[in-house]
Amino acid sequence: MHRFPIAVQPYTVREALGQDYFGTLRKLAEIGYEGIELGLPPEGVSVAEQKSALDSLGLQVVGSHASFNSFDVDFDRLFDYLHDVGGRYVAISLLFESKEDALRKAEKLNEIGARCREAGLTFLYHNHDWEFRQYDGEYVLDLLMRETDPALVQLELDTYWVAKGGEDPAAYLAKRKNRCPLLHVKDMEPGEERFFAEVGEGVLNFRAIAESAASVGTEWLVVEQDACRRDPFESLAISYRNLAALDLIRKPASRT
Question: Where does the Xylose isomerase-like TIM barrel domain start and stop, copy by copy (predicted)?
Answer without folding.
Answer: 25-225
